[in-house]
């Protein structure tokens, strides 16, 4: 494993002195504002409004957010406290449906609380705090391993395309899709990254290009409709994206527009990889068809930043994610190595016990 790489960009989520702090990503790259999370409602709203976003970061925020949410109930007695904990976990989980990490981490916290139900609430809280920190630390470790296993895919002089933001801001430390890029850069490889801007909320323009540039990588921002052009000119040799949920058969939900990128990559014979930790692989969901796709506010489409760009009362579709069939995926870059087809079998063999 390579030396630990340290980036100097702000943390998306931090647990400090028993309090949860979230970076408000909606303001980036113009403003760096970190907000202390005081209530369950505030955490829910931060998730809903994408102040914190990206599948693994949602898992981390959910776990710490549950600590914030149950604090007012620590004086309840055992059964009443557990009932409230379950209710608060379901409430936080309702903020966004597609990224499986949110439900996964909240379930893990709930299960840990169940194991401790005979203890007093102060002990349960202290143990849940340790569990949330563990979830966060495991994620950091996964990012570094994903970087290690994905780095050899990046060759000197290559063009690598990514969509949305699956970097440090969406996960922890190196991110998932960006981890192989940070690792290759750290090893002195020279290559070029193309970041899709990612309409409607511009995660590629505002977040990916910002964090890569801050870290000194060679990044070129392009509009979503330019990817085919650069592929057709032979400027892109590899695609790596993150994901919000991988179904048992290897179908991949990720930011809207990912499916189009995968189809283009297939047409131009460019390998399309998906980077993710075990917590994003949902073996309980059989295929991509069963993945719930979040539909968001039409105003995100009828505006560009704060400017309105569409007629009043126009009909709008705004699915936040799409599903790429597993047949278009060359492999999954995970903390346990690269998983190749047949995905149904290999995902189960590798992650069946997680
Ligand atoms: O709506 P967002 O910004 O939360 O969507 C994020 C993505 O689609 C990411 O690619 C995905 O969560 C993977 S993050 C490692």
Chain-wise SSE layout:
Blueprint: E1 13-16, E2 19-23, E3 34-37, H1 40-48, H2 55-70, H3 78-93, H4 100-115, H5 121-150, E4 159-162, H6 179-186, E5 192-196, H7 203-214, E6 219-222, H8 227-232, E7 238-241, E8 245-247, E9 252-255, H9 258-267, E10 272-275, E11 281-282, H10 299-302, E12 303-304, E13 307-308, E14 321-324, E15 331-334, E16 337-339, H11 343-351
Parallel strand pairs: 4-5, 4-7, 5-6, 7-10, 8-11, 10-15
Antiparallel strand pairs: 1-2, 2-3, 8-9, 9-14, 12-13, 15-16
Helix pairs in contact: 1-2, 1-3, 2-3, 2-4, 2-5, 3-4, 4-5, 5-6
The structure holds 5-S-methyl-1-O-phosphono-5-thio-D-ribulose (MRU).
5-S-methyl-1-O-phosphono-5-thio-D-ribulose binds next to α2 and β9.
Give an overview of the whole structure.
The chain has 354 residues and is α/β, with parallel strands linked by helices. The protein folds into 2 domains: 13-144, Four Helix Bundle (Hemerythrin (Met), subunit A) (Up-down Bundle), CATH 1.20.120; 153-351, Rossmann fold (3-Layer(aba) Sandwich), CATH 3.40.50.10470. 38% of the residues lie in helices and 16% in strands. Helix 3 packs antiparallel against helix 4. 51% of the residues are buried. The mean pLDDT is 97. The structure holds 5-S-methyl-1-O-phosphono-5-thio-D-ribulose (MRU). 5-S-methyl-1-O-phosphono-5-thio-D-ribulose is lined by residues 50, 53-56, 99, 164, 166, 170-171, 175-176, 203, 242-244, 254-255, 320.
Query: Using only CA atoms, what is the Rg?
Result: 20 Å
Find the structural class using helix and strand composition. alpha/beta
Order of helices and strands: EEEHHHHHEHEHEHEEEHEEHEEEEEH
Quaternary structure of the protein: single chain
Total separate domains: 2
Summed over residues and divided by their number, the pLDDT gives a mean of 97
Our count of helices gives 11
Strand content: 15-25%
Quick one: CATH class of the largest domain? Answer: Alpha Beta
Shape designation:
globular
Q: Spans with pLDDT under 50 lasting ≥5 residues?
A: none
**How far apart lie the N and C ends?**
22 Å
- Name given to the CATH homologous superfamily of the largest domain: Translation initiation factor eif-2b, domain 2
Q: What is the CATH architecture term of the largest domain?
A: 3-Layer(aba) Sandwich
Bound molecules: 5-S-methyl-1-O-phosphono-5-thio-D-ribulose
Largest β-sheet summary: 7 strands, mixed
> How many β-strand stretches?
16
Instruction: Estimate the helix proportion, in percent.
Output: 25-40%
CATH topology of the largest domain, by name, is Rossmann fold
Largest sheet, order of strands side by side? 6-5-4-7-10-15-16
């Amino acid at each position: 494993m390579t030396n630990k790489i340290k980036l100097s960009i702000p943390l998306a989520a931090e647990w400090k002195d028993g309090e949860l702090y979230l970076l408000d990503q909606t303001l980036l790259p113009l403003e760096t504002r970190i907000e202390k999370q005081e209530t369950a409602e505030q955490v829910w709203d931060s998730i809903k409004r994408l102040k914190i976003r990206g599948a693994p970061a949602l898992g981390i925020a959910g776990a710490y957010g549950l600590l914030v949410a149950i604090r007012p109930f620590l004086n309840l007695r055992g059964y009443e406290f557990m009932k409230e904990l379950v209710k608060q976990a379901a409430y936080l989980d309702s903020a966004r449906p597609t990224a499986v990490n949110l439900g996964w981490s909240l379930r893990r916290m709930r299960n840990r609380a169940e194991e401790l139900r005979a203890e007093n609430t102060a002990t349960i809280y202290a143990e849940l705090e340790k569990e949330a920190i563990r979830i966060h630390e495991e994620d950091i470790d996964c990012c570094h391993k994903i970087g290690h296993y994905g780095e050899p895919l990046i060759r000197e002089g290559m063009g690598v395309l990514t969509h949305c933001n699956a970097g440090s801001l969406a996960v922890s430390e190196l991110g998932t899709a960006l981890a192989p890029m940070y690792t290759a850069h750290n090893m002195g490889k020279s290559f070029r990254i193309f970041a899709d801007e990612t309409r409607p909320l511009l995660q590629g323009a505002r977040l990916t290009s910002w964090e890569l540039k801050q870290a000194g990588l060679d990044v070129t921002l392009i509009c979503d409709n330019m990817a085919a052009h650069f592929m057709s000119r032979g400027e892109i040799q590899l695609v790596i994206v993150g994901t919000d949920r991988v179904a048992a058969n290897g179908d991949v939900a990720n930011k809207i527009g990912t499916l189009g990128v995968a189809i283009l990559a297939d047409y131009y014979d460019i390998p399309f990889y998906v980077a993710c930790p075990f917590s994003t692989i949902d073996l309980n969901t059989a295929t991509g068809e069963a993945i719930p796709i979040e539909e968001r506010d039409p105003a995100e489409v009828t505006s560009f930043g704060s400017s309105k760009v569409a007629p009043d009362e126009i009909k709008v579709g705004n699915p936040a994610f799409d599903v790429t069939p597993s047949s278009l995926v060359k492999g999954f870059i995970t903390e346990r190595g690269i998983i190749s087809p047949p995905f149904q079998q290999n995902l189960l063999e590798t992650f069946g016990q997680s």
